[in-house]
Design a protein that fits this description.
Helices cover 27% and strands 30% of the residues. By secondary structure, it is an alpha+beta fold.
């Protein structure tokens, strides 16, 4: 399903510069890709992009959103030695920051830097055993004083992202000790949640190219500022006024050392996840059952999941008079870091699942989700 065109789109989308509040670049990439497959492409005033594909009816309206902001940083000061302090845009675990390369977007272009701190050689023995916290770190851009940093175009408020390039690798899949074909593993930054926006775009593309009949209108969305408070979801829901929402996200892949199944049940390569609970939303139970039944009927692998965080669905399900919602995720290792890993088979099965669910969301079915 993921052909050369769609893989190039994913590479461009994940590599581009777009932390929370600075999403214009990924939004333009999505717009350039989906315009040829959509009946209409439009945006709200917070920068979220919407792309519409009408089926046999104007309603129900099925919203399929994925957010395009990535976790990043924002420059908070430039000191006399030319080093930059920073605040975070989204949630970061301090331990993953130190020694990592970053890109700083300035008025004169984009410059490279590295997140650093006082060398351990100069720390007392007891200090070397402690985790270095973010407030002890700085970004080194190679300047030797404040004037040099200013000459590079740096100022307070400049956005910063991880420097990390997209790549893929092939692997042979083994399950229960038996060879089960092969998979492509994608490696890069910003999968949270540009893989969701990618799935939304591919759904619209597939509906258009394959002329798939669907008894509704599907609106894909690339939402903004999810990582800092689900802000783009609020404005998107106001504009779209959806009848039902299939939110696309990453899920925390728990198949890494030290994680117990009850902490994160999903595994990379075992299918997309259906979230049964998270901190921001209890999903519509009829919609959960519909998604599970659709996956089983079409032999699409899936996993059931619960997540302690929140997603755009946390806002969208309470929009207007309420909107039946569910979250469908792509299990991803090492989210909110410089480099994540995910299975392209999971992403492709996510597209398949959304397409099959969309075909079942007619007026009667959607009305039944909220019948009392």
């Amino acid at each position: 399903m993921a052909d050369q065109q769609s893989m190039k789109f994913l590479e461009d989308l994940t590599n581009c510069f777009g932390p929370s509040g600075f999403e214009r670049e990924p939004a333009r990439i999505v717009r350039g890709y989906v315009a040829r497959y959509s009946d209409q492409v439009y945006s709200d005033r917070l920068g979220s992009l919407m792309f519409r594909k009408k089926g046999s009816s104007d309603s129900p309206v099925v919203l399929v959103p994925g957010h395009i902001d990535e976790v990043g940083f924002i420059v908070s000061s430039v000191n006399k030695l030319g080093f930059l302090t920073f605040n975070t845009l989204g949630g970061w675990f301090d331990q993953v920051l130190l020694g990592q390369r970053v890109l700083v977007r300035t008025s004169k272009g984009t410059i490279s830097g590295v997140i650093a701190a006082k060398p351990p050689h100069l720390l007392p023995a007891d200090e070397r055993k402690k985790v270095v916290e973010k407030n002890k770190m700085f970004i080194d851009i190679g300047a030797s004083n404040e004037e040099e940093a200013r000459a590079m175009g740096v100022r307070v408020g400049n956005p910063v992202i991880p420097e990390s390039s997209f790549s893929v690798m092939k692997k042979t899949v083994f399950k229960e000790g038996k060879r089960k074909g092969s998979d492509t593993i994608a490696i890069g930054k910003a999968f949270d949640d540009r893989i969701g926006a990618w799935v939304a775009a591919e759904v619209i593309r597939t509906l258009s190219e394959k002329k798939i009949k669907h008894p509704n209108t599907v609106i894909g969305a690339a939402t903004t500022q999810e990582e800092v408070g689900l802000r783009g979801a609020r404005t998107t829901a106001f504009v779209v006024k959806p009848d039902v929402c299939l939110t696309l996200e990453v899920d925390i892949a728990g198949d890494v050392p030290g994680i117990e199944p009850h902490e994160a049940a999903s595994k990379m390569g075992y299918g997309p996840t259906i979230t049964t609970w998270d901190s921001s939303m209890i999903p519509n139970q009829g919609l959960v059952d519909l998604v599970i039944g659709t996956a089983e009927k079409n032999k699409i692998p899936y996993q059931l999941s619960q997540v302690s965080g929140g997603t755009d669905a946390g806002i969208i399900h309470m929009s207007n008079a309420g909107c039946p919602s569910v979250v469908i995720g792509v299990p991803t290792r090492h989210i909110h870091s410089h480099v994540g890993l995910l299975s392209m088979a999971d992403a492709e099965n996510c597209i398949r699942l959304i397409l099959e669910v969309v075909k079942r969301l007619d007026k009667k079915t959607v009305a039944g989700l909220t019948e009392i």
